[in-house]
Amino acid sequence: MAVAVLVTACGLVGAACEPRTDAQPTVASVDFAPRLLVTVDGEGAVSADAGPNDGAQLRHGDEPGWQLPQGSVVELRVDGQARRLVVSRLALTAAPDDEPTTWLDTGRLEPGERTVLALTQPGRYTFADPTAGSAGAGGLTLVVTPRDPG
């Protein structure tokens, strides 16, 4: 019996000293490539262009803006030479006359600085730079739609 315990212990010690290729579980790959690139220019005007990930659609007509699926990643960047404060109001439905219920405030962003936002809540997001006064008054509207469950 003592011999069996000694052989088992030596086997366990030997196995513990060998290098393991699967020592840790792998971390799931998260894709932070943005669907939309939002830019605040030197005057505080907010604009957007489609990013490297597909799925952003530019809407025309009565309510121009961008439409994105729920969970989309948006990259927000500041161009120009001045610091900018970017805020976003969120109305929890896509109706244009809904009162915003949630605010997102980036804090002051330095020229050239970027931040990434994951828009997980469906609704209307309106981005603006309140430090720009009337120059940034136009803002930018994004409509985030629920993901298709199918």
Describe this structure in words.
With 150 residues, this protein is mainly beta. The protein has a single domain (32-145), classed as Sandwich (Immunoglobulin-like), CATH 2.60.40.420. The chain has 1 helix and 10 strands; from the N terminus they run αββββββββββ. It has one helix spanning 2-17, and strands at 36-40, 46-50, 57-59, 65-69, 72-78, 84-91, 102-109, 114-119, 123-128, 140-145. The strands form 2 sheets. It has a 6-stranded mixed β-sheet, with no helix packed on it. Strands 2-1-5-8 form a 4-stranded mixed β-sheet, with no helix packed on it. The longest helix is centred in the first third of the chain and has 16 residues, at 2-17. The chain is globular. The model has no long low-confidence stretch (mean pLDDT 74).
Architecture, CATH level 2?
Sandwich
Would you give the CATH topology?
A: Immunoglobulin-like
Q: Can you give the mean pLDDT? A: 74
Name given to the CATH homologous superfamily: Cupredoxins -  blue copper proteins
Sheet with most strands: strand arrangement? 3-4-10-9-6-7
Largest sheet: 6 strands, mixed
Q: Termini separation (Å)?
A: 60 Å
Helices and strands, in N-to-C order? HEEEEEEEEEE
Percent helix range = 10-25%
- DSSP strand count: 10
Descriptive keywords:
150 residues; mainly beta; Immunoglobulin-like; six-stranded mixed β-sheet; four-stranded mixed β-sheet; 1 helix; globular
Question: What layout of secondary structure does this protein have?
Answer:
Elements: H1 2-17, E1 36-40, E2 46-50, E3 57-59, E4 65-69, E5 72-78, E6 84-91, E7 102-109, E8 114-119, E9 123-128, E10 140-145
Parallel strand pairs: 1-5, 4-10
Antiparallel strand pairs: 1-2, 3-4, 5-8, 6-7, 6-9, 9-10
